[in-house]
Amino acid sequence: MISGANRGIGRAIAERCLLDGHRLSLGCREPHGLDASPFGQQEAVACFPYEARDPQTASTWVRASVERFGAVDALVNAAGALASVPFLFEPGADAAIRELFDINVMGPWWLSRAAWPHLAASGHGRVVNLVSMSGKRVKGSMAAYPVSKFALLGLGQAMRNSGWDAGIRVTSLCPGWVNTDMAAGKGVPAAAMAQPQDLAELVATLLRLPNAAVPHEIACNCILEP
Predict the structure, then answer these.
(1) Does the annotation mark 145 as catalytic?
(2) Which listed residue (48, 110, 116, 145) is catalytic?
(3) How do 74-77 and 126-130 pair as beta strands?
(4) Mean pLDDT in order along the chain per 10 residues (226 residues)
């Protein structure tokens, strides 16, 4: 299962996983938009509606995935949102903060929780959370986004603790600038950024590793920071 599979990093991960022979259950707000893509022409791929702010769609998507494929062995939480709300936010901006937490934190929480029994049943379940370097340090005036990513990093650690004995391995993937729409116009040349396909390669490796060798965190940055 891959959320946010319609574009950016989620799309690149889905494409790579398809090449590696995985069966894919893809979730996004407009799944019909994938019908004309290579995904829509594959027997091993199913596309379902998923809205990170709505926990009911998480449960529905998991049930539909199990009905279609019989199991869920791995979950990639790639759906996310960006909002440049500062610490000293203007009146009314708290709504944007709540929405950001609903998408970046509660979305992966609800979806992983719904998939958990199936991941445990596999004996080698995998969860990959797309965090960010912003989940490890805060730069500039932006506050809401990095705080939500710090929370997602903590959620990944809690997941890891909860699933360890059942063979579930959880990895927080923390990239810096990645060449996606979200990073456009931020002052770093696109060619100097990590590419979505680079992160897809990391995820493909995580899915192949045995339980004893899965890292709980991967940080990668295209710029040198102190």
Answers:
(1) yes
(2) 145
(3) parallel
(4) 94 95 93 71 91 97 98 97 96 96 98 98 98 96 97 98 98 96 86 97 98 98 90
